[in-house]
Amino acid sequence: MKVPAKVPVVVDGKQLVLTNLDKVLYPEAGFTKAEVIDYYSRIAPAMLPHLRGRPLTVKRYPNGVTGPFFFEKNAPRHTPPWIRRVTLPVPGSTKDRESIEFAVVDDLPTLVYYANLAALEIHVPMWRVSAEGAALPPDILVFDLDPGPGATIVECCRVAVLLRDALAADGHACYPKTSGNKGMQLHVPWPDPDRATSPYAKELARLLDAGHDLVTSVMSKRLRPGKVFIDWSQNNPAKTTVAAYSLRANAQPTVSAPLSWEEVEDCESADQLVFTGPDVLARVAEFGDLFP
């Protein structure tokens, strides 16, 4: 039976109209928009704590992962009035804008609204906004581990353990997740609002670069074959990182999935740490949220 083009629903008291639910957004997997919305609806209890208060950037794929896409930071004109928005300065904007009105995903209806826009990927910064909408200092430090040619997430896991131990020596805990693509990230809760994250991340990355042949802290492609690039620059307040539990726009509906350190330490092949939306729902049902 054909699904109606428009389906009105009520989500936690908010009225939405879901559209084109039978559109296939992941052709190789046959994964539809309805399944994308279902995934985000069901993962919301684990995902929302990592989104609340963070200005939103999405990567939208109106015709699926094989079609054109676009990044969207500014809340669309048709954004419902009940979605929280904050206006923030964007110095150096590529579109010469002085400020952007960002949406903030604070609740399930907002998450469903964006899933219905085929916002497959959800990206957020490492800082939040106050109740009044002002930018706060970073509360997370992030390391993005990107394998160069000849390396995989297996090598990323080895570097993640090196970073974990170095951070622990400085009194910091950290939490791993896959990127949902070929690499991974480490999130470090950052308790000191008066201490910038970027200089510390840069110093630690360069320290590991100097001491381990597997590591590079330099973006230059000629230095990356067989190595893992520790991208510390993601701590620039103007940058975002894919959110925990976000889908990624790959052939399969892979997810940026939080990991246990046991999984990281035991990784021996790249396919061990590939998780799709259904996989992640099962993982959260069994283990709960592995992220802080």
Automatic annotation (TrEMBL):
Residues 32-291 form the DNA ligase D polymerase domain. CDD domains: MtLigD_Pol_like (cd04863). It holds the Pfam family LigD_Prim-Pol. Gene3D superfamilies: DNA primase, PRIM domain (3.90.920.10). PANTHER family: BIFUNCTIONAL NON-HOMOLOGOUS END JOINING PROTEIN LIGD (PTHR42705:SF2). NCBIfam families: ligD_pol. This is DNA ligase D polymerase domain-containing protein. The lineage of its organism: Bacteria, Bacillati, Actinomycetota, Actinomycetes, Streptosporangiales.
